[in-house]
Amino acid sequence: MAAPSPTDERSSADDIAHITEQTPFISEVPTAHDSVANEPGLRAKKSPFTWLVGRVPRARKPSTILAILCISIFIGSASGGFQNLAMTRIFEDILCRQYYDQIHSDNGPIDEELCKVDAIQSKLTYLFAIMNSLNAAVSVVAALPWGIVADVIGRRPVFALGLTGMAISLLWIMVVGWFSQALSPRLVWISPVFYLMGGGNPVVAATLTSMATDVVEESQRSVSFMRIHASSMIGNLISPALASMFMTAVGPWPPFLLSVILVLLSAAIIFLVPESLKHDPKGDVLDGNKFKSSLTKALGELKKSASAFASLSMIMVLLITMLQLSLVLSTYQFLSQFASKRYHIPIADTGYIQSTYGVGFIVISFFIMPWITSALVYPGTPALLRFEDDKRRDLFLARASYIASMIGTFILGLSGSIPGFIFGLIILAFGVSSEGYLKRIATLYVTAEQRTRLFTILGLSAIASDLWLSPALAALFSLGMRYGGAWIGLPYFGISVLCVVMFCASLFIKLPSYSRVDEESDFNERPDSDE
User: Fold this and answer.
1) Exposure winner among 62, 304, 307, 330, fewest CB in 10 A?
2) How many C-beta neighbours within 10 Å does residue 474 have?
3) ∠ CA 388-229-454 to the nearest 5 degrees?
4) How many CB atoms lie within 10 A of CB 262?
5) Residue 202 and residue 211: Cα distance in Å, rounded?
6) Could you give the CA distance from residue 167 to residue 493 in angstroms, rounded to a whole number?
7) Please, is 483 exposed, middle or buried when counting C-beta atoms within 10 Å of its C-beta (0-12, 13-18, 19+)?
8) 491: enclosing H helix or E strand
9) What 8-state DSSP symbol labels residue 388?
10) Three-class SS string for 273-336?
11) Which residue from 3, 453, 481 is spatially nearest to 209, judged by alpha carbons?
12) What is the largest CA-CA distance in the chain?
């Protein structure tokens, strides 16, 4: 499960005239005090589930609530490592049996090395690429409606429902894999349908961010979001290595089942915190007219938000955002299949490579990059390396990140050894860790009231780009295997070319003479100065 960020918050649709940066996309955000002290009227319901939820002890202190949210996101993120490695190995074996016409064999898995032929790997890549594209399509369609529901009935039930839908999706994939003698592997393409239950990853991330925003004081939000992001990263860091050890000992099925259990556990933990949304008891029942009205207003706000991309600089920001997902895709499930095929190692062992990348990413993100960021504006830094202000520095670092990503992905495609591949991942981590600088620059072109809507559009565009990026990555991998030799690195060469496009696009981004927020502040201060 992807780490939520403060940019996933949604703008208010109940009172458009008073939208602020901290306002969610659909409705009013309560203060930290109100969010803890005022719970919705769920207690009025008499269903057994509601009674059971009401009996669960809940945290009250904002710090305790935040800790529980971090634990939930940690567990949910950790499930991804177990899921990806196990699912890749299970369906590789299924396609391998079909290829060798041994689908009815009861002698256990075929030797994994026999499954590395190009035809099998190509089918496996397309199988997951199409599934990921369908996941993205369903998520984009479901994100806005479920965002509205979360702002009407509460964040907590939508968060739990979204994770439940994701767990059911994984269970369906397990059913297809377990009954592979009777079911076609392509039936995994049905699994995204269950993302309609709760909206999938984007809604889960947004509701978690909203809950953190609701209960934490404004001055502490930056630190809180960093802790949530760190929890997600640590989960992504340790799970591949644990999955590797687990798969080596017991095979792929127990880790896959464990990933489902972890997703459901992440959903259950959320009921240890109170509902953070403040609303009247009537809001417990989703009224059709209210939903329709909220949807109409939200669509109107999205349409108005498009005006923020009127400038060439903002168009380039949108383009780069859509292309950056390729870097994320190249370091998760695809990495396992690629490394296993190219370096002739078991899929189970590729988890150690992913965890090595995770360690490098955390060290760079939380230690090296903050030091570089401070050093570039430090008065004692030589003038040649020093920037006048943080805006120029951020633009420089954003451009530098695309160069680092270009070099890193090129090394990944070219490297013929595992140490060289890991070195490429470390270089890539320098590029990926600087992604936030682009969003920082984007905020200079919009007012404070437009920021949340800006980040919503950027987030949806990134998700939508998976509709073509995953199939494109699969096509390049198949083509590279067909040509053989060093051409097997073609997917990473292709991503390297996209990094060149991102760098060229960043050259057209120009810093405004002053930000829109500065302009508003000056305007608001003028009456006082006139007095």
Assistant:
1) 307
2) 25
3) 60
4) 25
5) 14
6) 34
7) exposed
8) helix 490-506
9) S
10) CCCCCCCCHHHHCCCHHHHHHHHHHHHHHHHHHHHHHCCHHHHHHHHHHHHHHHHHHCCCHHHH
11) 3
12) 88
Chain centroid to CA 451? 19
pLDDT tens-place string over residues 241-280: 999 999 999 999 999 999 999 999 999 999 888 887 765 4
**Higher pLDDT residue, 203 or 526?**
203
**In the predicted model, is pLDDT for residue 32 greater than 90?**
no
H-only helix segments in 179-220: 201-215
- CA separation for the pair 527, 531 (Å, rounded): 6
Place of tokens 């030799």: 485
Banded pLDDT at 524 (limits 50, 70, 90): very low
Q: What tokens were used for 284?
A: 């417990």
Q: Residue 301: what are its φ and ψ, rounded to 5°?
A: -70, -40
Identify the band that residue 17 occupies on the pLDDT scale cut at 50, 70 and 90.
very low
Neighbouring C-beta atoms of residue 199, cutoff 10 Å: 30
Q: HSE of 383 in the Cβ direction (CA atoms, 13 Å)? A: 0
Residues 6+ apart with CB under 8 A from 229: 3, 4, 5
Q: Residue 471: in which H helix or E strand, if any?
A: helix 466-483
Which pLDDT score, from 0 to 100, does residue 260 have?
Answer: 96
Quote the pTM value.
Answer: 0.79
More confident residue, 66 or 421: 421
133-161 in b/e form (b: 16+ CB < 10 A) is: bbbbbbbbebbbbbbbbbbbbbbbbbbbb
Helix, strand, coil percentages, rounded to 5, for the chain: 80, 0, 20
- Give the pLDDT of residue 14: 38
Residues in the chain: 531
Structural domains in the chain, CATH included, are 41-281 (1.20.1250.20), 295-525 (1.20.1250.20)
Which tokens belong to 450?
């437009």
CB 457 within 8 A of CB 464: no
Report d(CA 321, CA 325) in Å as an integer: 7
